[in-house]
């Protein structure tokens, strides 16, 4: 028998051995199957036995071996979230909601930022697939990704913020068109008839949807769309300021502005030194300093927490085996009226 220090029969080595479920069952005085049922939250175990098993786990320092469990069951108890930029407030709140839902399921959430790069998006998705995650919540690329269609076949996926291009899938979206139309309706009620629309690039899904909602709001009010009051581009302060000031030099300039996301609102306000030149402003997306600015900025607020909760609930339903047709769910947006909601000055 090996009795050398730290050998297999050394008491100190035995004390350091990782406890198994067999050890837990013996300590709790229950059958191994009973301990397994408690661990997996299965029914038909008495509260008294559940308490004994939990006490034994705590005493022995037992931790479930999820790697071994994944090999046996094919379930890794982990899901992935791909977003454009985790530092963006929308993405951060979305991630927090999905993480909370995953924690309720004793699942781990892995989050990664694509940095708006389609190639990085493909690489990260490949990493998620290779780690055999149980499912994904994804902010998709704005272009078709045939690799996504092929490589992720059979893996539960829910898309948020915009639908994937080229194939049907479960999607959870904000009410982009309805929110933009509400912004226009609000400005019209204040007396505005000349309303500018400053947008992020028009080939972006949310920009296109919100611009359509903007035009629908004008139509509802009997106001003709004027291309001279529309600009789209990357949210650069100089470019947005130049576009806005060109509109102000028109014979019939705008008295109000609608911006299509928080980045465009911030770009315009940054270029103008923090405030418009007497015009009303409603932006789509709330942002951190909107309420602190002078005047404070009225916004159409998305609900990223509700979007994340809805997407996570749908994802876990699919992981649990619920079939049926794909679902497209829309989470309402809401108008928050602040100091930039002013009537025309002229």
TrEMBL record:
HTH lacI-type domain residues: 19-73
Q: Mind telling me which InterPro entries this protein's record contains?
A: HTH_LacI (IPR000843), LacI/GalR-like_sensor (IPR046335), Lambda_DNA-bd_dom_sf (IPR010982), Peripla_BP_I (IPR028082)
- Which keywords belong to this entry? DNA-binding, Transcription, Transcription regulation
* Coiled-coil boundaries: none
Note whether Transcription occurs among the keywords: yes
Database matches in SMART domains: HTH_LACI (SM00354)
Q: Name one GO molecular function term.
A: transcription cis-regulatory region binding
The record's annotation in Gene3D superfamilies points to: 3.40.50.2300, lambda repressor-like DNA-binding domains
Q: Does the keyword DNA-binding apply?
A: yes
Please name the PANTHER family in this protein's record.
Answer: HTH-TYPE TRANSCRIPTIONAL REGULATOR GALS (PTHR30146:SF109), LACI-RELATED TRANSCRIPTIONAL REPRESSOR (PTHR30146)
Q: List the protein's name.
A: LacI family transcriptional regulator
What organism does the record attribute this protein to? Agromyces protaetiae
